[in-house]
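== Sequence and structure of one protein ==
=== Format: two labelled lines per protein ===
==== Data for this protein ====
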Amino acid sequence: MWRAKTRGTLCIFGACSTSLFYHSSHQHVLSSTPACHTQSMAGPIRQQIDLDSLAKYIDSNVPEIKTPLDVKQFGYGQSNPTYLLTDSHKNKYVMRKKPPGKLLSKTAHQVDREYRIIKALQPTDVPVPKAICLCEDSNIIGTSFYIMSFLNGRIFADPSIPNVSPTERTEMWKSAVTTLAKFHTVKPSSVNMSDFGRPNNFYNRQLKTFATLSIAQAETKDIETGEPVGKIPHYDDMVKFFGNPQTQPTDRGTFVHGDYKIDNMVFHPTKPHVIGVLDWEMATIGHPLSDVVNLTAPWVHTGIRSLRANDAFKAGVTPGLPTREKVLEWYHAVVDWEFSKQEVIWGDAFGLYRGAVICQGIAARYAVRQASSANAKEFGAQAGPFGEMAWKAVQDCQRQGEKDGNVKTKL
């Protein structure tokens, strides 16, 4: 099952990057309640599809699903249109399809990759929806699509998981962390997925991508004022630091989700554990630290004053919310490696730098009046705070290296 929320993908001058605003000032639009049950999130079809053609395809290829179908669409502008299918036996399924028209990015909207990773994880203990079918024939409903099982459970837009008991909050976070750790221990070769991505130099590839983006974004001029967006604070020094092999974490290659966070998982309707991980379009083989940093970003973002949404993660504010140190302890208890304190700080710094580039991209889109969000100007203005926070983390990483006797971390 996939659930609908404000989609975390921002197309920045043709390249897509996962949004950081789930962890920051993005409004929670899932529901007026802190947790949204998945079924209630579907409504009228907004992006029309050929329902007769879909039914014929299902009749011929998917005997598990019994037509006729009742079809609704999940909401809030996710990158891949997503539909709730209810068959004649009242069984529910979810269909994800590529958007219509010419796509800005060749690497986004890859529903075939989503289907492939979900199907590959079926025999593992990583909770995912059941993969039903993949159709790459665009003649059926206009673009390729896949169908998976529907998961009825709770989705929390707020990572502090409000309106549950402190004990439940602790257990739900522990389940989220151990689920990630179990996922990282699945060897791609064990599920015939060795070709799903390159197992090394993940951060170098990321750095190259974001550097190319940032240069173009910085030079973008406002169509009214003529003023360029400008560089991220300390940009050159940060790129130099991140690109230095002597400063980087020990290279590792595992499955990575690419957008692992609390609102990308379904929790049991009444019990404090994860029953499904969703939104796999960014999945690849990469460095597991990137997923850990993404999941624990709310603790880091409390240091950015303009991101008041993360006050719940300040020490002692939310009963039952684990410390970041406890989260790392839970993670390390499952995997066969351990990130040093210096490596975690390096990962934080890179994550904040990445956030700055994403914000800069929003600012660039606003400058040419291509940003669709009403809050684009506000979000774009966060590039400076994220850049300053990233630079502070770089300096913290250097100090930690000196403390540990690893003087090679100096610029």
